């Protein structure tokens, strides 16, 4: 509901002329950033499950991933409508002038593959290959960060924040770090169980 409410609020802001001088560009930026935040949130669910031992995180992981994809589709659509005016020639000029659009498209293709296989039928059909395919989410995150870096260039502060969170989430998947993280979760839970203040 929150993921749906946010773009509706942006639409409302556009309606009341509260998105600045270039509302189309602002919408493209908001949706791109929203997609990146949702991608990072999706990747946080497994580490949170390992730390807390609560399965609820995994239950919302797929929904978050699919919302990330929805934001990307809206980001791409807003770009096509507001920034290139559905003009194929303009799009080709843009592709030549701004290579970050190509990086964005590669990221989109990767996310499309994950979204299309995020259902029970594909999980059953692909078996072990499903896990290997969904590991693509890590290069996808790196591509998304590269795409953003290319856009913001001089203004590195915000990008660094997302890049650091992404790097931490990637680090948590390295086997020894992941084992240590899980151990930390078990230790925290047993300490909380023993403490007089029950969790
Ligand atoms: C179909 C592919 C894509 C296209 C054509 C595209 C295009 C764009 C454009 C035109 C901008 C704004 C440039 C400006 O402000 O002048 C942008 C920004 C951005 N895009 Fe994409 N993009 C694509 C895919 C993605 C994907 C898959 C993600 C993330 C998962 C993403 C995340 C972002 C972010 C974070 C920004 C920067 C927003 C900011 O300035 O705060 N984009 N993209």
| Total helical segments | 10
Structural class: mainly alpha
Give the total of domains: 1
What is Rg? 19 Å
Instruction: Please provide the ordered H/E string of secondary-structure elements.
Output: HHHHHHHHHH
Report the sheet-strand fraction. Answer: under 5%
Helix content: over 70%
Number of E strands = 0
Hetero groups bound? protoporphyrin IX containing FE
Largest sheet: none
Mean pLDDT: 95
Instruction: List segments where confidence is low: pLDDT < 50 over at least 5 consecutive residues.
Output: none
Shape: globular
Q: Give the N-to-C terminal Cα separation.
A: 28 Å
Architecture overview:
By secondary structure, the chain is mainly alpha-helical. The protein has one domain (2-152). The protein contains ten helices and no strands. The protein is globular. Protoporphyrin IX containing FE (HEM) is lined by residues 25, 28-29, 32-33, 35-36, 39, 72, 75-76, 79, 83, 101, 104-105, 107-108, 111, 144, 147-148, 151-152.
Short description:
This protein is mostly helical and 199 residues long. It has helices spanning 2-15, 23-52, 56-83, 88-97, 99-116, 120-126, 128-134, 137-152, 156-171, 175-194. It contains ten helices and no strands.
